[in-house]
Amino acid sequence: MKRTLLCSSLFALLGLLGSGGCGAASFEPSFKKPLAPTEINVGKQIVAAKARTERPVAVGITTNPSKLCAWDLSAGMLWERPIDAKSNPLVVGNAIVIQERDGIVVRDLATGALRVVVDDEGKLIGADGIDNTIVVAIAYDDETARSKVVLVEGDSVRWRQTLNLAIGAPALLGDRVLVPWASQRLSVLAAQDGLEMARWNFTNMVVGHALVDRGRVFIGEHGLMRVKEDLPDHRDGPVALYAPIKRSLPGRPALMRDVSKPVPGPDSATNKLQVDWRVGLENEGASAENDQLILRYYRLVFGLSASSDDVRWLRMFDQDVIGTAIEPGGTWLADAAGNLSFLDLTGATRFERALGKSLRSISLRAAGYVPTSLTAAAPQPSLHDQLLAAAHLADERLSPARAYAIDRLAMLPEERVTAELLALCTDAASPEPVANSACIRLGTRENGATDVITALRGRASFLEGAAAPPVGALAQAAGRMKLKQAAPLLVSQAEDPHTKSADLVAVFQALGTLDHRPAVSVIERFVRLHHAEPAGSELGPALYAALSVLGDLRAQSARTTLEEVTMDGLTSEAVRKKARETLGVIDSPPVVAKVETPEIKAKAGVETKQPSAVEAAPRPYSLDAAAVEVTIAPLRKTLVGCLTSDPGKLRQARISMVVAGDGSVEGMFVTPTSLQSCMDPVLRSAKFPATRLGRQRVTQTIEAEANEPVVAKPAASTPAEKTAAQPQKQTLKPGAKAPPATVNTVSPIAKPVSPVVKLPTKATAKREEAP
Amino acid sequence: MPTRNHSRLAAVMITCSLAATAHAAPPTSGGVKPEPQLIARAAPDMSTPAPRTKPAPIVPAQNLAASDKPLTAAERASMLRSAETKLASEEVETVEQGFALLAQLGGAEAIKIMVARVRRGLPPQLLAPAVEVLVSFHQPSVAPVLLELTLHRRWQVRAAAIDALGRLGAKTAQPSLLYALDDPSAEVRSTAVQSLGLVGDARALPALTVAMQRNVEGAALALGKLGNSKESELLLERVRKGDVASVESGLHAMLLRANLPLALKLKIVNELAQVDSPNAREVLTVWTQTWTTGDARVLQALKARTKQSEGAAVAAQSAAVPAKNAAVASQSAAASAGKVGGKP
Questions:
Q1: Alpha carbon of B279: minimum distance to chain A alpha carbons (Å)
Q2: How many CB atoms lie within 10 A of CB B30?
Q3: Section A339-354 average pLDDT
């Protein structure tokens, strides 16, 4: 009995295999290359696909009652059928692939009739098709990452192939099926029987999608690579993927759908929050169609440049936009109210049609169709007006997009933008992200001085019900604009208890930037009253900023307070140290800016030459002793002054500096440490030549002149005496020659890494071509 | 030789001790304004309070208080030096001991040392006790440093300084107190109106009027202390609207003032009596019962009006009882009728 049962089971299994229910085994752990066709030939077969002739359609799922509807973009509604949809519909070939209550099904595009239930257990990952041949990728919620790829021909499944790793979105190329899997692998299967014919493992990119667009084949996920004959050569090493330039966008939408998750459901928020783009026909697949990236954020649509971080236009709709299709010359959009429109490259609506149904989701496949009777483009508001209107939209869901609009608005040079940002920043109705963005951007403005001054004149008043102006942002703006008139107002705001502690940092810094010496008494009082704040106090940053600014302003009148702070046992060590540093800065000579004479300027003008493209790298590889000497030479006198003015009558100081790749001094350590406070600001003003090597350590020894007359002078004890003992008053003996500084070591700290693989520029290409 | 008020010293010592050891939660915005001692004890707002390792050993007040012998100049100089040394300590507790010593010693030198120390800046937890010591000197020379503390970033310090200025009777503080009416902290605003009530003059009345309209606590009392007929009318306007509680203190202050005309006071009493609400009757009763000083004619009016109000209340009550009984009876009758004529 048992034997009979076993035999019958075996026969049934063999019969199933023989009948074509499953193809030959593919996706085995170790892939054995078939003898024919060879990998090279398979590679050649997948370079291009036949141009597809597809119907321009929109397939959507309506709201209550839930129906699957199809429209021909050029003709109108095709059909509607009740549906319990679990995913968005995918329009492929002459079919619709969709996850329904009963499983993943293939429906006929022309009638909506059910062709076949592909699977009743898995989740739809992706699909592609040509005419009636459809390939479907399915994933299962097993503990193992079980997946399946199924090929449907007409009304039946031709074959299924299972794999135990994650699967991506497949593509169909005539008799070949491209299946991305395990994030990095791409297999080519025979469409006839599912036999795996070639397999490549990419170590340099994520391969989540395989797609065919206008005869071209692409793979990738975070960018797309066009499949060419040399595909096997690009499995490792640098790879040039095309994607619109990266930028920070509200909602952080992915460039392409994440195939580790199933196709989203019809009510998923991702349907309303997406970027849409398409590889253009120009530039060998290294450009975007229309050089445009469409950002959908509920009812806002941004037209972004694909090649630069620019907003070209912005449109606001009454309903959420849930579907797009990019075509040369414009973009199809469909909203939740069932309005279909075609926008040209300026964002102007050129065609409109009502589908007549409220929609939960929609898939648009324009297939190159652009309406022939386009209406004349209505004049669009300026980008400024579009951004400003979006910034003011009262819709809680749109806060991140409003903040983004504000960021872009702030980049516009119009002076009125400052006042507009101010209004958004102070509007009590603005949600926090919107107000924050406006306030931060207000601080970056470089014009609109009148508005800044007017706002700073405002004062918070409980009795009058007046709110405090955004003092921090205004202070930053005033600093950037070098607004001297703002300084007294900032002083007043600094002492107003309504001014937030966090804003005091910007206020003090602005007063320093504006070199407003009358502010010293207020800053000094702030330091005096608050220097003993406990560690971690929210006043800490303001306290440090105040101390720094007292140094910057060379506030000799604050010396007594600073000295008391350094001696106060109730003050934290960090604050005392900062106060000591400030005293050092006050004592150090002010850095004198080089004054260019007209002759020098004129000479510089004559000698200025635009570097040619070939001479694009004039930076030395690293700093050498000569370069260091040239940079230090103008400062030597001051540094020697520090040395000789030290009460210890020091003869030598050793400086160890860290110089950044751009030539700026990042940090230093001076021995003896008593000279640190004097030499630090002097050396930080030094600008070394920029290098290609990057960060370097430079060690320098400064020696007092051998014949420097040592004046017998008692060490300064009182503040007045210390003031008198300022190093700037120490001068070298006229005619005395300063000894050359010795460059002990110039060593790289970290080897620069070039993480970006760049396509060859014209300049390098020229060089390569040269014999 | 400075005179020493031993009881005052003891009080200051206790205040200092409390301020040094206790950490009360800061009062919430809009809450009841804490007593000065509570302000002194309040932990610093905003961020972490400075850690305290052990309770502050305070110099026992009774040691000096019990001694009848005045200090010699040398002893005093030595104690001042000792206090100065303590004030320069890294230990919070030692600094507090220095405060206590200076409070005990009093006198120009002690004030000078104390003022200098406060001006140099102190950790937040020492500022409130320091302010209390400054107030204990009862000298106008401490006002400038208190005025400077009204600019402190911590509201507790501002409130303590403003309160101290009021208690010191520093007339010069009025501009700072008016400025503080706009403070973001409700406690500071409330303290400012109280201090204005103590040291302010007619110039503060417009701001105090707005403060009352904006419901700043204590503004009505300050108006009562400083205002005249115009302000009394403002307060009575509230009474007429049935809001007796918020202006009662201000009206009471007006009744007690010697520099207001009798007619105005009688008008207040009459208006209050006319309101004829339980609150108004209670206020009249309390004022009558607690009357100690002031014009006897006002007391007479208060008594008359209280009696009249009580009589009216009793009459209203007795009129209300039969009406209530009648209503109950009619309800019962209706119920009985329902029962009779209801379902068989």
A1: 29
A2: 10
A3: 94
Element (H, E) at A201: strand A196-201
| Interacting residues of A219 by C-beta distance below 8 A, sequence separation 6+ | A178, A180, A186, A207, A209, A210, A211, A225, A227
- Rounded distance between C-alpha atoms, residue A456 and residue A465, angstroms: 17
> How far, CA to CA in Å, does A262 sit from each of A125, A149, A212, B61?
5, 14, 20, 79
CB A336 within 8 A of CB A319: yes
Q: Tell me if residue A314 falls in helix, strand or coil.
A: strand
How many helices (H) and strands (E) are present in chain A, helices listed first?
A: 19, 31
Contact B44 A495 (CB under 8 A): no
Are residues B48 and A462, on separate chains, in Cβ contact within 8 Å?
Answer: no
pLDDT of residue A591: 64
3-state secondary structure of A410: helix
Q: How far is A258 from chain B (nearest CA, A)?
A: 44
Rounded to an integer, what distance in angstroms lies between the CA atom of residue A357 and that of residue A591? 72
Q: Is the dihedral of CA A426, A432, A435, A439 positive or negative?
A: positive
Residues A124, A104 contacting (CB under 8 angstroms): yes
| pLDDT tens column, A12-31 | 444 344 334 444 578 888 88
Identity (one letter) of the amino acid at B170?
A
- How far is residue A682's CA from residue B242's CA, in Å, rounded to a whole number? 72
CA torsion, points A98, A103, A104, A105, in degrees to nearest 10? -80
Q: Could you report the per-residue pLDDT of A615-666, keeping only the tens digit for each?
A: 334 566 677 777 788 788 888 888 888 877 777 767 777 787 878 777 888 7
Contact residues on chain B for A498, CB-CB shorter than 8 A: 182, 184
> How many angstroms away from the CA of A461 is the closest CA of chain B?
5
Mean pLDDT of chain A: 83
- Locate A509 and state its tokens: 């810094």
How many angstroms separate the CA atoms of A222 and A183, rounded? 11
How far are the Cα atoms of A183, A276, B167 from residue A253, in angstroms, in the given order? 19, 10, 63
What is the Cα–Cα distance from A349 to A300, expressed in whole angstroms? 14
Place of tokens 């006839």: A192
Per-residue model confidence as pLDDT tens digits over A575-604: 999 999 999 999 887 665 554 444 444 444
User: What is the predicted ipTM?
Assistant: 0.76
Alpha carbon distance A60, A99 (integer Å): 13
| A539 at interface of B, judged by CB pairs closer than 8 A | yes
Between CA A620 and CA A631, with CA A625 as vertex, the angle to 5 degrees is: 80
Compute the distance between CA of residue A231 and CA of residue A481 in angstroms, rounded to an integer. 54
Q: For B138-175, how does the pLDDT look when each residue is reduced to its tens digit (9 = 90+)? A: 998 999 999 999 999 999 999 999 999 999 999 999 99
What torsion, rounded to 10 degrees, do the Cα atoms A436, A440, A443, A446 define?
-120
Contact assessment for residue A68 and residue A97, using Cβ atoms and an 8 Å cutoff: no
Round to whole Å and give the CA distance between A673 and A653. 9
pTM assigned to the model: 0.71
Contact A169, A180 (CB under 8 A): yes
Buried b (16+ CB within 10 A) or exposed e, B229-259: eebbebbbebbeeeebeebbbbbbbbbbbee
- β-pairing, A171-173 with A176-181? antiparallel
Among candidates B121, B151, B185 on the partner chain, residue whose Cβ is nearest the Cβ of A531? B121
DSSP class of residue A15 equals: H
